[in-house]
Structures are given as structure tokens and as C-alpha cells.
UniProtKB/TrEMBL annotation:
Pfam families: LRR_6 (PF13516), LRR_8 (PF13855). The keyword Cytoplasm does not apply. It comes from the Eukaryota. The chain crosses the membrane at residues 602-621. Residues 1-19 form the signal peptide. GO terms for biological process: platelet activation. The keyword Transmembrane helix applies. This is Transforming growth factor beta activator LRRC32. InterPro entries: Leu-rich_rpt (IPR001611), Leu-rich_rpt_typical-subtyp (IPR003591), LRR_dom_sf (IPR032675). Keywords: Leucine-rich repeat, Membrane, Repeat, Signal, Transmembrane, Transmembrane helix.
Length: 637
């Protein structure tokens, strides 16, 4: 009986199953003529695609054999996304009749298997963009896909195993504009491999094993990426022909010399960072009149002379950081006239010379991580457009204001720099921050952190009333900060963390401080009176790692507990009820506990007082009695 029931059940379920269409439409997402069937474990497209379907996304499925059947006999596609399947075979001629198919994505499949079969995929009649990346393709295999692709403009062969670009690789795809061969193992490019591609403007050969380009002659190329190869040499054909190259990325190679660029060029962006350049003293004989961006960082340069830049009249960004440059000087306004950013950080600079009219457009100057100890005191005052100055990690001293500056003490002045807004002078072993140090300089951000023992004058920040927004005085190991902050009406963010502060600076009711970091100090109490000044504006307070007293900060406790204040480091904000008790989290403090603690101490005090009183009384009584006795004795006598 039971066995019969089971059989019956099985039969019913079979009937039900066969009653459904054999391949039911899975939950594909259909928007007008676009069908999205991502990640549904499909081996082929659903049968009932809408007629005239234009976009089919079958990515992340299990398609193995790509044929008319897999695509449900539709040919109307404009875009086909077959990324991340297991395709190892394509029916030859499949795309021939797809006269609208412009974008074909076959990336992340197993097409090297198809490549080994040496079968041609047939015409890619209309395809303009083809992605064959991550298919394990070897040298020559791309030929089976490209042999007849007359309209192909955009090709990706990224992340394959191609070692050589042959002369005939692209002979069936003469419309190519952009080729990406990133992340292959290309060692060799045969002469003329790209010559027939008259419209080629973008070539990405990054992350390969190319050691040199000897006769660069791709006149139409606009973007050439050779980053992450083993390039030692880049030479151009010596001719007067015009080149359209705008962007050349040679970063992360082994270049010993500056590349030899075409004479007649319009290069705008040149990246030679992370190479082995040791020496630019040869000077440049090729004008780079259009060059706007030059990155020479992370090389071994010891000396960059200003004459090197004479033929780069349009340069806006110069990065020579992370080299071994000992001195840098620009004496005239004739070179680097339009440069806005100069990055000289992390060298061994001991001297910096800026002539009277030099660097008239400079806005950002990065000098961090050098050995600058003395500078011409007015060096920054001569830079009319300077907005940002990074000086952290040097050994500079700051001059007092112009008025009471003693000349010749090697200090550098930060007053009267008309456009300076961001100044970082942390980690300079600054001894003092004198009064009026920033007079007539509209600083918005000032970082004087990690200058141990920095003695800041009361008036150090005077003149910044309307401009200063951010003030950072972290890890200076100071126990008090007497500098007047209450006049700084724009000040919103103050970081005083990592010091030994036992009291807070004074602020008044006009304060607009929104965030305050007091982490890791020696604060026992926040002095309600002083905090009141901040109450109106303060939104965020970091307060962890301070020896706070619970009962002397009930105002603050209330602010925290009523969520009037955001305390992001709340878990580390603890306090103690008295010297003997263990720290508790500020969120758990109760006023009752403080009152109880208070009451018990009242009682003890009262008891002690009573005992004292009793003792006094006893003493008095005793005293009177002995007097009486004396008297009586007297009487007796
Ligand atoms: C792929 O499918 C087609 C048609 O469905 C079939 O003729 C062919 O044998 C299949 N090829 C492979 C390698 O599975
Ligand atoms: C392409 O179209 C032609 C004519 O319409 C037809 O004979 C041929 O079988 C089609 N080929 C494919 C692969 O669909
Ligand atoms: C070229 O194809 C790649 C991937 O195949 C794509 O990311 C890129 O947007 C395409 N570029 C153009 C200009 O069509
Ligand atoms: C190159 O581009 C031009 C203009 O876009 C076009 O007329 C020409 O047909 C293209 N050449 C090739 C070989 O595709
Ligand atoms: C060159 O390729 C690398 C690696 O893919 C990439 O990080 C870099 O941004 C590219 N350079 C340019 C100028 O596009
Ligand atoms: C710089 O290169 C030139 C030749 O290119 C050489 O004569 C000179 O010694 C080099 N200087 C340094 C400091 O390496
Ligand atoms: C740097 O090079 C310039 C010009 O080649 C030369 O005058 C100067 O002495 C060099 N400086 C150093 C420190 O080598
Ligand atoms: C060089 O400096 C520029 C400007 O600051 C920056 O954009 C670029 O990323 C830096 N280059 C490297 C390799 O860090
Ligand atoms: C911090 O200051 C104290 C004296 O106030 C001193 O003993 C200590 O060495 C200083 N620590 C540092 C890191 O400078």
C-alpha cells in the first residue's frame, strides 16, 4: 500500500513536470527589448525571448557551447553579454547574420580551448566592441576572432597569455581605435604590427614584459600605456612628422634615461614615476610645449636643474617627490611659469631657492619629509598664488610677525602670504609658535602637531579670527594651551588629542566649534562653566582615555546620556567615582551614585565631627573638675 502510494506520487510529479514547458522561462528581468538573465545557472538563453530582443545579458551562467540554439535562434541582438560562462566552443559563422550586433562581451570564458581547435569564428559583421579578456588565449589565438571584423573599433585582450604581437594580428580589423592588452606576457612586437591601423588612438600595453621601444612611429596614437613593463629605453623615430600622442605612461619600468620623445609632439601627460632615472643633467633637446603633467617621482634623481624645464612652457603639475634631490632652485619667472603644483616631498632637500618673479602660478607646494632647517625667511611670501603648503617632517623655525622679526636667525615667515589657506608644519621640532606668526595670512587649516613641547604664544593665532576653520595640535606633549582661541570665530574643528592637558583653553559663547578631540589627555574635569561656551555649537566630542571624575562632570554626563552630543569614542570614555574606585563608562554614570557617595561622606564627616565634639567636651569637663579640685585644695590649704 505504502509502496503504491509512493509510485503514484512519483508518477503525478512526472506528469506535472512534463506538463510545464520543457524549458520554462526563468526569472529573467525584461525591460522593453532588454533581457537580463544574470547568474541563473543557465546553459542557454530561455526559448521565449521577446521578438526583436536587442540586449541579452547572459553573464555569470553555465553556457558551454555558444550556438544559434544557445541564443534561441535570435539574430536581432545589439548587445550580447556572455561574460563569466564556460564557453569553449562557438558555432562558426554564428555572428555573421547578426547585422546589428555592436557590443560582444565574451570575457572570462574558456576560449583558449576554441583557439586550439584552430577554427575561425567567422565574420563579426557589425561588431564594434569585442571583449576577449581573461580567456587564457595564447599568441596567435586572437587571429581566429579578428580575421574578419571590419567594423571593430574597441578590442580588449586583457589578462590572457599572449607573448607576441605578430605583424598580421590585426590585418582583419583595420578600424581598430582602441586596443587593450593589459596583463599579458608580451615580450615582442613585430615591426609594423600596428602600422596598418590608421585609426588607432589608444594602446594599452601595461603589465607586460616589454623591454624597449626603439622606433616609436605611431603618429596617430593619442594614449600609450606602457606602465608595469621592463622598459629600459623609449626612442622615437627621428623625423619631423607630427605625432598626436597626448598621454604616455611609462611608470613602473626600468628606465635609466628620460625617454626620447618625438620632436614634433603635442604630449600633455607624461608619467615616468617608479623608474631608475638618476640624472637629468643632459638637458632636454625636445620641446614639450604642451606638456601639462610630468611625474618623475620614485626615481633616483639627485639633481634637477631648472634648465631642464625650459622647454616645458605649459607645465602645470610637476612631481619629483621620493627622489634624492638635495637642492631645488627656480631663479627666474622664465621657467615653470604656469606650474600650479610642485611636489618635492620625501627628498633630501636642504635648500630651496625661489627667485623674485619665479613660480608666479604656484598654488600647491609639497615639501614634506625633507631636511629643510633654514630658508630665506621670505621665500613663501614671494609666491602670490600659494594656497597650500606641506612642510611636515622638516626642521624649520617660525619667525614672529614682520614687525618684531630679528633678521638672520634662520626662521621662516608665514605672515603676509596673501592666499595661503592650508599649512601643515607638524613634526618640525618647532620650539615656539610666536605671537602674530600668521598675520595677514588667511589660513583655513593649521597643523602644528607632533612638535613636542611646542610653546604657543597667547597671540600665536591672532589675525586668523575670520579664516581659521581647522586647528590641529596633536601629540605635542603639552600640559596647557594658553593661546587665545575664543576670538577665532570661524574655528569649527579642533584636535588637541594626545597631549597632557589638565585644563581646557578658554572659549566664550561666540565659539562655533563643532568638533573637538580631547582624546588621551590628563583631564579630570571639563569645567562646566567653560564647556557651556561650546554647548551651542559642539556636535562631536572625542574624550576617550582621560582620567575623568564621574561626579565632577555631571553636566557632561548629562549631555552624553541625553544624546545632545555625539561621542564617537564613547566605549573608551571612562571616569572614576573616587580615587579608589574602578573606572566606569561615562554612559553608566548616575547622579544618584554621586549623591549617595556624597551622602555617605556627609555621614562620615558628621560622625567624625560628633566624636571630635564629644572628645572636646570630655576634655573640658575634665579640665573644670581639676580646677575645682585645685580650688578646693586651696581651700583646704
Ligand atoms: C555545439 O552545439 C552544436 C549545435 O547544438 C553541435 O552541433 C556541436 O557538436 C556542439 N559542439 C560541441 C563542441 O559541443
Ligand atoms: C545567415 O543568413 C543566410 C541567408 O539569410 C542563411 O542562409 C544562413 O544559414 C544564415 N546563417 C546563420 C549562421 O544563421
Ligand atoms: C571598450 O571596451 C571596454 C571593455 O571591453 C569597455 O570598458 C570600454 O568602455 C570600451 N570603450 C569604448 C570607447 O567603447
Ligand atoms: C578611420 O576613421 C575615419 C573617420 O572616423 C573613417 O572615415 C575611416 O573609415 C576609418 N578607417 C577605417 C580603416 O576604419
Ligand atoms: C596605465 O595602466 C595602468 C595599469 O592598468 C593604470 O593603472 C594607469 O592608470 C594607466 N595609465 C593611464 C594614463 O591611463
Ligand atoms: C649624469 O649623466 C651624464 C651623462 O649622461 C654623466 O656624464 C654624469 O656623470 C652623470 N651624473 C651623475 C651625477 O650621475
Ligand atoms: C645640479 O646641476 C646643475 C646643472 O647641471 C649644477 O650647476 C649644480 O651644481 C648641480 N648641483 C648638484 C648639487 O649636483
Ligand atoms: C605625483 O604628484 C601628483 C600631484 O600631487 C599626484 O597627483 C600624483 O599621484 C603623484 N604621483 C605618484 C606616483 O604618487
Ligand atoms: C613629555 O613631557 C614630559 C615633561 O612634561 C617629559 O618628561 C617627557 O619626556 C615628554 N615626552 C616626550 C615624548 O617628549
Amino acid at each position: 500500500m505504502a509502496a503504491f502510494q509512493l509510485l503514484f506520487l512519483l508518477m503525478v510529479s512526472c506528469v506535472v513536470a512534463s506538463a510545464r514547458p520543457s524549458r520554462q522561462i526563468p526569472p529573467c528581468h525584461i525591460v522593453q527589448m532588454d533581457v537580463i538573465c544574470r547568474d541563473l545557472s543557465l546553459r542557454s538563453a530561455p526559448d521565449n525571448l521577446p521578438r526583436g530582443v536587442q540586449m541579452l545579458d547572459l553573464s555569470l551562467n553555465q553556457v558551454q557551447n555558444l550556438s544559434q540554439r544557445t541564443l534561441a535562434y535570435h539574430t536581432s541582438f545589439h548587445r550580447l553579454n556572455l561574460q563569466s560562462n564556460r564557453i569553449h566552443f562557438i558555432q562558426p559563422g554564428l555572428f555573421q547574420n547578426m547585422s546589428d550586433l555592436k557590443v560582444l562581451d565574451l570575457s572570462k570564458n574558456h576560449l583558449s580551448v576554441f583557439g586550439f581547435s584552430k577554427i575561425n569564428v567567422g565574420p563579426l559583421t557589425a561588431v564594434e566592441s569585442l571583449d576577449l579578456s581573461s580567456n587564457g588565449l595564447y599568441t596567435g589565438m586572437s587571429d581566429y576572432f579578428l580575421a574578419d571584423s571590419p567594423l571593430l573599433t574597441n578590442l580588449s585582450l586583457n589578462s590572457n597569455s599572449i607573448t607576441k604581437i605578430g605583424q598580421h594580428t590585426f590585418k582583419g580589423s583595420l578600424s581598430l581605435k582602441k586596443i587593450s592588452l593589459h596583463n599579458n606576457v608580451i615580450l615582442e612586437i613585430e615591426d609594423g604590427a600596428f602600422d596598418s591601423l590608421k585609426n588607432l588612438t589608444e594602446l594599452d600595453l601595461s603589465k607586460n614584459s616589454i623591454t624597449c621601444i626603439r622606433d616609436f612611429n605611431l603618429h596617430r596614437l593619442k594614449v600609450f600605456n606602457l606602465s608595469q613593463n621592463s622598459m629600459e629605453l623609449f626612442c622615437s623615430v627621428d623625423s619631423r612628422a607630427a605625432y598626436e600622442l597626448q598621454t604616455l605612461d611609462l611608470s613602473k619600468n626600468k628606465m635609466l634615461y628620460f625617454p626620447s620623445l618625438p620632436q614634433n609632439n603635442v604630449l600633455r601627460y607624461l608619467d615616468v614615476s617608479r623608474n631608475l632615472l638618476g640624472n637629468l643633467s643632459k638637458g632636454l633637446d625636445t620641446p614639450l610645449n604642451d606638456l601639462m603633467y610630468l611625474d618623475l617621482s620614485y626615481n633616483r634623481l639627485t639633481n634637477v636643474s631648472e634648465s631642464f624645464f625650459t622647454l616645458m612652457g605649459s607645465l602645470e603639475v610637476l612631481n619629483v617627490s621620493n627622489n634624492c634631490i638635495g637642492s631645488f632652485s627656480v631663479t627666474t619667472g622664465a621657467v615653470l611659469r604656469s606650474v600650479r603644483t610642485v611636489h618635492l616631498g620625501y627628498n633630501s632637500l636642504r635648500s630651496l631657492t625661489v627667485g623674485a618673479d619665479a613660480l608666479p602660478s604656484l598654488e600647491r607646494l609639497y615639501l614634506q619629509g625633507n631636511d629643510l632647517a633654514t630658508l630665506d625667511h621670505g621665500v613663501f611670501q614671494r609666491l602670490p598664488k600659494l594656497r597650500q603648503l606641506q612642510l611636515q617632517g622638516n626642521g624649520l623655525k617660525i619667525c614672529a610677525s614682520e614687525r618684531n622679526r630679528r633678521t638672520g636667525d634662520g626662521c621662516v615667515s608665514f605672515s603676509y602670504i596673501p592666499n595661503l589657506q592650508f599649512l601643515d608644519i607638524s613634526e618640525n621640532n618647532l620650539p615656539t609658535l610666536p605671537a602674530d606668526a600668521f598675520a595677514e595670512t588667511p589660513l583655513r587649516l593649521l597643523d602644528v602637531s607632533r612638535n613636542p613641547g611646542l610653546d604657543m604664544d597667547q597671540d600665536a593665532l591672532s589675525g586668523l579670527d575670520r579664516s581659521l576653520v581647522h586647528l590641529l595640535v596633536r601629540e605635542n606633549n603639552i600640559s596647557r594651551l594658553d593661546t587665545h582661541l575664543s576670538a577665532l570665530r570661524s574655528l569649527k574643528h579642533v584636535d588637541l588629542s594626545g597631549n597632557q592637558l589638565t585644563s581646557l583653553p578658554q572659549w566664550n559663547k561666540e565659539s562655533s566649534i563643532e568638533s573637538l578631540n580631547l582624546q588621551s589627555n590628563n583631564l579630570v574635569t571639563l569645567e562646566d562653566g567653560n564647556m557651556l561656551g561650546l554647548k551651542r555649537s559642539l556636535k562631536t566630542l572625542y574624550m576617550g582615555s582621560n582620567p575623568l571624575s564621574c561626579c565632577r562632570n555631571l553636566g557632561f554626563v548629562h549631555m552624553v546620556q541625553s544624546s545632545a552630543l555625539d561621542v564617537p569614542d564613547l566605549p573608551s570614555v571612562t571616569c572614576v567615582y573616587d580615587d579608589a574606585s574602578a573606572p566606569v563608562n561615562i554612559g553608566a554614570v548616575s547622579a544618584e551614585a554621586c549623591r549617595a557617595a556624597n551622602t555617605s561622606s556627609y555621614i562620615i564627616a558628621a560622625v567624625l565631627a560628633l566624636i571630635g565634639l564629644a572628645a572636646l567636651l570630655a576634655l573640658l569637663v575634665k579640665c573644670c573638675r581639676s580646677r575645682k579640685r585645685k580650688h578646693s585644695r586651696g581651700y583646704r590649704a
